[in-house]
Automatic annotation (TrEMBL), chain A:
This is histidine kinase. SMART domains: HAMP (SM00304), HATPase_c (SM00387), HisKA (SM00388). Pfam families: HAMP, HATPase_c. Residues 234-440 form the Histidine kinase domain. Its main location: membrane. It is an enzyme of class 2 (transferase). Keywords: Kinase, Membrane, Phosphoprotein, Transferase, Transmembrane, Transmembrane helix, Two-component regulatory system. InterPro entries: HAMP_dom, HATPase_C_sf, HATPase_dom, His_kinase_dom, HisK_dim/P_dom, HisK_dim/P_sf, Sig_transdc_His_kin-like_C, TCS_sensor_his_kinase. It catalyses: ATP + protein L-histidine = ADP + protein N-phospho-L-histidine. Its EC number is 2.7.13.3. It comes from Sphingomonas immobilis.
From TrEMBL, chain B:
Residues 125-223 form the OmpR/PhoB-type domain. This is Response regulator transcription factor. Transmembrane segments: none annotated. SUPFAM superfamilies: CheY-like.
Length: 440, 225
């Protein structure tokens, strides 16, 4: 049971059991003393009443002696003891065998014919003729009640202690079990079972909220690890081709005209590719929330729309934009601008001249919706779900410029803002919808 | 101009120094943060080029200490870190411009020219005149040879940036940063399309284009118009 000392669960349970027992103990002590004092007080009052009642008796010593004998014979429930002393201190009436006590209340010892010397509570009163009347009650009664109270509380204390201990053990075991599941799962994850998750019970209690929070944390970490793995594999696969091309062009420098310029362009393209990958990693990696401020999305869409209008008309596209007024989100202005710019870049690059391209910002109850649609050749429906994937380039766009990262960045920016991206068949053309939670 | 170049990579430092010396600048090269801080604080330069990752003392620390020592020389921070947060850190430390590696030599030269001899911040220029073109910043009006030219707001901003840097080259990324506030380069050449509209309006009815295209570098308004 060494674990009893190191287990917080048991320690907490035992502490509570001990606190409960201490409370019972204190209650017992209080009840004991209060009851004892009350019983003694009542007894003294009864003695005083009996004594003054007797003292009223007329008829002198003889009358009083007869009354005492009368009361001794007829004593019922209350066992008073009586003694009457004359002025010389001799007992002249009453059966209680004791020496003459001082006037007022006192503890006396009398000889019980059956039990020998016994203690009693007595009150003595001096009579006008010089005699002294004594009324007493055996102390046994109060002591017996005190003993009963003590006994009852002793039993209650023992029961509470036992029930508390049993409860503490059960509670401790329960807490250890619930926590044990979490720590066993964590150990399994440490051991390499990375897809394990904390079990969540049906109670929905504190342990479940901890488990849910841990699971959310594990999902986030898994997402980041997947991201890292993805970047490594992207670097391995998709950077090799441009590097091979660059190498080829460098070999031709000095032999073929313009090879140096092409190599330089190829190098720039490679660096832009690196930049895009790093930017996506930065956005997906999180932590950008610190840079988030209130962004006037209506103004931003106007700004980007206005910026792209000349270039899109130069390339022969029919471009229009509409931005509903007063739509704001909490985010990073530059990233949001880059996301909208990427959507328009895509529309321009992947559709022929004469295509209609529209950018629309509309506000819904809780979200802002940025829609970019075109009536160009569109994307095969089988390709729609994978458009957002990194380095994905549609079959039809193998020969157009670009690196297949534009929409990935849009998706990363949307996710970083708590939003999402959807791609649909615009029949004809492509529709890309970005939704972001809006603020007032 | 006198330029302090703090860069620990000898290849890059040599290439930058050659590029700047070729066009007549005097370059003092240091390879670590301690030297950069010492020389930057004791000698006088027109502009300082500071790499962010320097041995001994980190680039941004050098910058903070220079600023704390009241060195007001314009500083361009060179960095391999192009993240959103990184740039904010650089500007917070007191950088006047921030250039992400790798960069074209033409880009660096254009930015250094723009930085050096920049009018003090408290000097408000409300009217710019180059050749026969006059630009009134307050009234948002452009005239050429006294005749009003109607420019869109963004075209006005492009011309203003060119005229403030008259005689110097303004690169595409400088336009994107200054006029659009974009620290990324869209695939679509939005600068070129806006510039060409502005130039058409400025040329309309006049002989000669006041804006020159410098191939592989950027655009320029000749100081003499």
């Amino acid at each position: 049971m060494a674990s009893l000392r190191t287990s917080a669960a048991y320690r907490i349970a035992f502490t509570y059991a001990a606190a409960l027992a201490a409370a019972i103990l204190m209650l017992g002590i209080a009840v004991y003393f209060a009851a004892d004092a009350e019983f003694r007080h009542q007894r003294d009052e009864r003695i005083a009443a009996e004594l003054s009642d007797l003292a009223q008796e007329q008829g002198g010593t003889t009358g009083l002696s007869e009354e005492i004998a009368e009361r001794e014979r007829g004593r019922t429930t209350e066992s008073f003891g009586y003694a009457l002393f004359d002025a010389a201190g001799r007992r002249i009436a009453g059966r209680m065998d004791t020496t003459r006590p001082a006037p007022g209340f006192s503890m006396i010892v009398f000889r019980d014919p059956a039990e020998g010397p016994d203690r009693a509570r007595a009150k003595a009163l001096d009579l006008p003729d010089g005699g002294r009347l004594v009324v007493a009650v055996d102390s046994e009664a109060v002591e017996a009640i005190d003993a009963t109270i003590l006994e009852l509380f002793g039993i209650a204390f023992a029961v509470v202690l036992l029930v508390g201990l049993a409860g503490a053990l059960l509670l401790g075991r329960y807490l250890r079990q619930r926590l044990g599941v979490i720590s066993r799962t964590a150990n399994a994850i440490i051991g390499g079972e990375l897809d394990k998750r904390m079990p969540v019970s049906a109670y929905g209690d504190e342990f479940d909220s901890v488990a849910l929070a841990l699971n959310a944390m594990l999902e986030r970490i898994a997402g980041l690890m997947e991201n890292l793995r993805q970047v490594s594999s992207d670097v391995a696969h998709d950077l090799r081709t441009p590097l091979v091309r660059l190498r080829g062009q460098l070999e031709q420098v000095g032999k073929v005209d313009g090879a140096a310029e092409r190599a330089l362009e190829q190098g720039d393209a490679l660096l832009a590719l690196f930049g895009s990958i790093l930017r996506i990693s930065e956005v997906e990696g999180g932590g950008l929330e610190q840079s988030f401020t209130r962004v006037d999305l209506s103004g931003l869409v106007d700004d980007v729309g206005d910026s792209f209008l000349p270039a899109l008309s130069d390339s022969g596209h029919h471009f229009e934009w509409r931005a509903e007024r007063g739509i704001a989100v909490c985010g990073n202005r530059e990233l949001l601008a880059q996301a909208v710019a990427n959507l328009l870049d895509n529309a321009r690059v992947h559709t022929p001249a004469g295509t209609r391209v529209t950018l629309t910002l509309s506000g819904h109850a809780t979200k802002a919706e940025i829609l970019v649609e075109d009536d160009g050749p569109g994307v095969a429906s089988a390709e729609l779900p994978v458009l957002l994937r990194r380095f994905y380039r549609g079959e039809a766009s193998r020969t157009t410029p670009g690196n297949g990262l534009g929409l990935s960045l849009v998706a990363a920016v949307a996710a970083a803002h708590g939003g999402a991206v959807e791609t649909d068949d615009g029949q004809p053309g492509l529709r890309v919808t970005v939704t972001i939670p809006r603020i007032d | 101009m006198r330029i302090l170049l703090a860069e620990d990579d000898t290849e890059i430092a040599a290439f930058v120094e050659r590029g700047l010396s070729e066009i007549g600048h005097t370059v003092t090269r240091v390879a670590d943060g301690e030297d950069a801080l010492h020389i930057g604080a004791t000698e006088s330069f027109d502009v300082i080029v500071l790499d962010r990752m320097l041995p001994q003392i980190e680039g941004l620390d050098v910058l903070r200490r220079l600023r704390a020592a009241s060195v007001r020389t314009p500083v361009l921070v060179l960095t391999a870190k192009g993240g959103v947060a990184d740039r904010v850190d650089g500007l917070d430390a007191g950088a006047d411009d921030y250039l992400v590696k790798p960069f074209a030599m033409a880009e660096l030269i254009a930015r250094l020219n723009a930085l050096a001899r920049r009018p003090p911040i408290n000097e408000v220029v409300t009217r710019l005149e180059v050749g026969d073109i006059a630009l009134d910043v307050m009234r948002r009006e452009v005239t050429r040879a006294g005749r009003l030219v109607h420019l869109q707001p963004r075209e006005f901003q492009l011309l203003e940036l060119l005229m403030r840097n008259a005689g110097k080259i303004v690169t595409r990324t400088m336009f994107l940063e200054e006029v659009w506030g974009f620290h990324f380069d869209p695939q679509t050449n939005i600068v070129e399309s806006h510039l060409s509209r502005m130039r058409t309006k400025l040329r309309d009815g006049f002989a000669g284009d006041p804006v020159e295209t410098i191939r592989g570098a950027g655009y320029r308004v000749r100081a003499d118009g």
